[in-house]
Design a protein that fits this description.
The protein is α/β, with parallel strands linked by helices and 268 residues long. The protein contains nine helices and seven strands, in the order αααβαβαβαβαβαββα. A seven-stranded mixed sheet has the order 1-7-6-5-4-2-3, sandwiched between helices. α4 (100-111) runs parallel beside α5 (127-134) and α6 (154-160) runs parallel beside α7. The radius of gyration is 19 Å and the shape is globular. It starts with 14 loop residues before the first helix and ends with a helix.
């Protein structure tokens, strides 16, 4: 009987960690290296955030929090979605995790059964298919091309959907391509999703505030309110506020999904 779980044979080591470690080793050896692995902002966490954290520690706010996050933070998240994305969520529709990765993983763990499919536009962030695999699902890769800015099109999405499709995983702006979907492009994808009510959307908006020029960020539940009840909108503080090591990710969605996502870390 093997000691290690068979699950490990279904997943690959993190390419991000591997290339970041290689860059670190070369730097330590005296090489002039620009690291393009981990998405680490080149500015420090703002002082007002640092000071607020220090004051919280001094107040003794260092005990176990609720699994879904402390109430003031969940209230702030709901306000953020209303203020920046025109999305109305109650605090109980939000959840906080130890980074965006945990939010994604918990969503898949709470919803995927063997045979369930997740559509992932390609190129994609390296962790997506591994999360799907370890949670028992199957990744279906929807190819994009340089000709359309590495963006998923409505026709490609339509062809990718099957009766087994459970999630469409969106990432805009995208890691690694930088592709950012306009409102019109999201509208076209939403029109396809409206025809397939069994498909949910998980949108990774971690890079929401890293946009350039006159681009206006939109998220899909904002563009199509009819998708509100089957969309999980994920975000975090790592990139916009240079808080990568703070490990704070969050999401908002239907209450029944949020409750299911709480069960996994609650057991752990």
């Amino acid at each position: 009987m093997a000691f290690l779980a068979d699950t490990l044979s279904r997943v690959k080591p993190s390419a991000t960690i591997a290339v970041t470690q290689k860059a670190r080793e070369l730097k330590n050896a005296g090489r002039d290296i620009i690291g393009l692995g981990a998405g680490e902002p080149d500015f420090d966490t703002p002082d007002n955030i640092k000071n607020a954290a220090i004051e919280a520690i001094r107040r003794g706010e260092t005990k176990y929090p609720p699994v879904s996050g402390i109430v003031p933070l969940r209230e702030a998240i709901a306000k953020k979605f209303k203020r920046e994305n025109n999305l109305d969520y109650k605090p109980e529709q939000t959840i906080v995790g130890t980074g965006g990765k945990q939010i994604l993983f918990n969503a898949f763990m709470a919803t995927l059964n063997p045979g369930d499919e997740v559509i992932i536009p390609r190129p994609y962030w390296v962790s997506y298919p591994e999360m799907v695999a370890i949670c028992g699902g199957t990744s279906l890769f929807a190819d994009t091309s340089i000709d359309n800015g590495f963006k998923l099109t409505a026709s490609v999405l339509e062809k990718a959907i099957t009766p087994k499709t459970k999630w469409l995983l969106m990432n805009s702006p995208s890691n690694p391509s930088g592709a950012a979907y306009t409102e019109a492009e999201l509208r076209a994808l939403a029109d396809v999703l409206l025809k397939h009510p069994h498909v949910w959307t998980l949108t990774d908006d971690m890079y929401e505030h890293l946009t350039y020029g006159d681009f206006v960020f939109k998220t899909i539940a904002e563009v199509e309110p009819k998708l509100y009840e089957r969309t999980l909108t994920m975000n975090g503080v790592s990139k916009a506020y240079a808080m990568t090591g703070w490990r704070i990710g969050y999401a908002a969605g239907p209450v029944q999904l949020i409750k299911a996502m709480v069960q996994a870390p609650d057991v752990c």
